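Hi support team,

I submitted a single chain yesterday and got back a structure, but I'm not sure I'm reading the token output correctly. Could someone confirm the output below corresponds to the sequence I sent? I've pasted both exactly as they appear in my results page.

Thanks,
R.
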Amino acid sequence: MASYVNNSEKAENNRSSAYTLLIVGSIGFILVVLYFLDVIPVRGLNKYMISGVMGALFLLFIIMGCVSLRSARIFEKKAGSENNLTSEIKKWCMTNLSAKAIDEPLHFDHEEEEAKYFARTERVKELISGKFMNLDQDYLERLADEIYASIFEKNGQEKETDRSEE
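Hi R., thanks for writing in. Yes, this is the structure output for that exact sequence:
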């Protein structure tokens, strides 16, 4: 089962990868240049071969770091619109969905809590998909889990509170 990674998380992952690649690549490239110029003396190795291969490797790290940094900026831009959509969907769900509205067409008798969970999340996904078209399935799955938690865990706590007052 694939789990959805939102764009802000992707941006953060790319940014941290970019910084790591740029730092390692820069330090490595500087060390290779110092080795090539005999500032760092190492005997018994082919200076041109080592400098060429390692220099190319560290240069590739720097290029990959720049690409990751550019990708992080792209994901940051996408994260803004994704966050707006997510807040709009959650706002709609909190306004239009309740535990009773979700459970009513499901007709639970004596099902296990796990079976109820899966039936309820499917129902939440159907309701969201009916209102908001063309959502990514992994995104919808993650969103349904968050909505489920906010609706049913809150209601579960209220039920426990009601029982303790009796």
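A quick pointer for reading it: The chain has five helices and no strands. Let us know if anything else looks off.

Best,
Support desk
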